[in-house]
Amino acid sequence: MEIIQKKLKCPVGINKVNDLSMSRRIGEFGSSADVVTALPGQPENVSFKQYSGYITTDAQHGRALFYYFVEAESANPFSHPLTLWLNGGPGCSSLGFGAFMEHGPFQPGDNGLLVKNEYSWNLESNMLYVESPIGVGFSYSNTSSDYVIWNDTQTAEDNLRFIINWLEEFPNYKDSEFFLTGESYAGHYIPQLAALLMEYNRNPNIKPIKLKSIALGNPLLDIDISVQAGDYLWAHGAISDETLMLEKTVCNDSKYLREYVHDQWSQGCNDVFNRVSDEISEDVATDDLLLPKCLSSTSAEQFRITGKHAGKTHAAVYMHSGL
């Protein structure tokens, strides 16, 4: 992935499987120490258990990944599968986005309290949200060089160490069917982690982790394919024929994104994307043309577009306030 070589190198490959250091959590804490009795503003009568804490992935470097674990809403959560979720980015928080804005058990309401998410994935599965790689969310390293040079292979190895060590803390889930899921740049994280996990499972001297399948939502698999928005914007009447032609001949989305990451903007790309910005209405949400746009306000965050979403407040604002 050339696109992020300046900030994160992204070699695709699996190595050092046999050298993985299965270090324990920093300190001698059992999983009971990570029990979350209740979140601030949590609804009453919550029947499932929650946990959060750190799992060490490299004791020598002082590296640890933060997790938020929600048991399945069931009388017997151990009869349900275990699903690990990673947000993408690189740099997006699985806690702030995946857990509290997408499919976790709670979402922030406009009154500052949490509300039950009727579409929560923990209705069907035990959910394990991991902030990865280090530097994302609450995950950290005590070795400063870890923040300077990092790549996707290291992320996969760290995540495998996390899984193995986490299962030592939660041994009741060792026999659970295991799903790896994620979105966006997790289109790289998840397949590489799955390949590393399958290689780990080939060791006849260990108990294999029961990887069932992987699932990817809007994954970034190839930058030249995944970010070409020009045709989509044009098909929805957001940009003109002339602007679409400029995107095809002067500067498309992948070229612009590469220039952005490397701080090397060309005049041609600047001109094309200034034109795109001018043509797209301020009332349109560029992340999803079919959804209403959220506008900032000192009193509230509410959608400008009317319809069934009118009057709803923007969960992102309340999520930031809650965290």
TrEMBL record:
It is found in: Secreted. GO terms for biological process: proteolysis. Keywords: Carboxypeptidase, Hydrolase, Protease, Secreted. The keyword Secreted applies. GO terms for molecular function: serine-type carboxypeptidase activity. One of its GO terms (cellular component) is extracellular region. Pfam families: Peptidase_S10. InterPro entries: AB_hydrolase_fold (IPR029058), Peptidase_S10 (IPR001563), Ser_caboxypep_ser_AS (IPR018202). SUPFAM superfamilies: alpha/beta-Hydrolases (SSF53474). The keyword Protein transport does not apply. Its EC number is 3.4.16.-. Its main location: secreted. It is an enzyme of class 3 (hydrolase). Belongs to the peptidase S10 family. This is Carboxypeptidase. The lineage of its organism: Eukaryota, Viridiplantae, Streptophyta, Embryophyta, Tracheophyta.
